[in-house]
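tokens incoming
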């Protein structure tokens, strides 16, 4: 049997050919695209062997930094803008529904459920007191009662509870009241750095980037019949709003944390949920609709072209 001799011009096609019979259609699409882009990347960059090995070492080190408390690959996805791109393509913007943003690595399942008006802050935690009053509504502005709202934040020192040894702090779960309302006390969020003592931190330094995120509160809101909303509220005026290390800022999520009559920071916000099933971004749906329409068109065209061919065959 003749042995084929692949070269830099023919190798990609051969790799793609070997993926051609992948039984799962989606996996085939993903693998094919990944190989095409990876080969194109290598063609463009032309790494030396030493550089390629440096890349492998970086990914290996990233893996070594991952455990149940630290997920360096998510951080890499966040800091390279991939998490937000996935968010844009999947959650999309629908009418006046509240926009989503990154989940981040500090969400913890099972936070304690607290009464409205409770503080989520343990005594002695650094930070300035802040009062948060919110409502949850549907697209038409009707209150959503019984929504489950997870809230979490960093303290005034820039650390989440999971980065310290002292147990649950700065996080809680609330349930919206009959008017869709919920309220709680926290500390005014301040800017803080994403974890930058690992490979992602090295990458940020090497590329001349800072690790800072603008001050924000995290929210995850779930209610039966509605899309789960994962979002933040950002502090208006924060100096990192335009250079968030993870690209998570959306203008509609920037809120005034102003001092109230008692001198306490206070903010109000109305979270608008979209009905379940509205997750896919309009573009993706439009893309799918376009593909469906063009598939129909081409099968119609095929039928058209095949008929005259048959007729002309008959004529002969
Ligand atoms: C956060 O906001 O908690 C966060 C998000 C992405 C990466 C690191 C931290
Ligand atoms: Fe955060």
């Amino acid at each position: 049997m003749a042995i084929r001799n692949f070269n830099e011009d023919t190798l990609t096609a051969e790799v793609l050919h070997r993926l051609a019979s992948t039984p799962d259609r989606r996996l085939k699409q993903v693998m094919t695209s990944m190989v095409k882009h990876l080969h194109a990347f290598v063609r463009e960059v032309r790494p030396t062997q030493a550089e390629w090995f440096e890349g492998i070492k970086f990914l290996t080190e990233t893996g070594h930094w991952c455990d149940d408390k630290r997920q360096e690959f998510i951080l890499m996805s966040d800091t390279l803008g991939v998490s937000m791109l996935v968010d844009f393509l999947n959650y999309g913007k629908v009418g006046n529904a509240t926009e989503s943003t990154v989940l981040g690595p500090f969400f913890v399942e099972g936070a304690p459920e607290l009464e409205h008006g409770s503080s989520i802050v343990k005594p002695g935690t650094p930070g300035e007191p802040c009062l948060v009053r919110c409502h949850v509504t549907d697209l038409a502005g009707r209150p959503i009662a019984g929504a489950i709202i997870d809230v979490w934040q960093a303290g005034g020192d820039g650390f989440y509870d999971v980065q310290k040894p002292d147990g649950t702090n700065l996080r809680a779960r609330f349930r919206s009241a009959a008017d869709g309302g919920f309220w709680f006390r926290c500390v005014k969020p301040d800017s803080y750095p994403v974890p930058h003592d690992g490979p992602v931190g090295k990458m940020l330094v090497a590329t001349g980037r800072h690790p800072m995120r603008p001050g924000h509160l995290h929210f995850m809101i779930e209610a039966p019949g509605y899309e789960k909303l994962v979002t933040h509220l950002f502090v208006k005026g924060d100096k990192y709003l335009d250079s968030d290390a993870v690209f998570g800022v959306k203008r509609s999520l920037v809120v005034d944390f102003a001092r109230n009559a008692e001198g306490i920071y206070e903010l109000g916000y109305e979270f608008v949920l979209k009905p379940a099933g509205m997750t896919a971004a309009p573009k993706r749906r439009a893309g799918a609709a376009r593909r469906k329409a063009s598939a129909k068109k081409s099968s119609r065209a095929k039928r058209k072209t095949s008929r005259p061919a048959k007729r002309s065959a008959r004529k002969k």
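note: The pocket of benzoic acid (ligand 1) is lined by residues 75, 78, 102, 104-106, 194, 213, 246 (CB under 6 Å).
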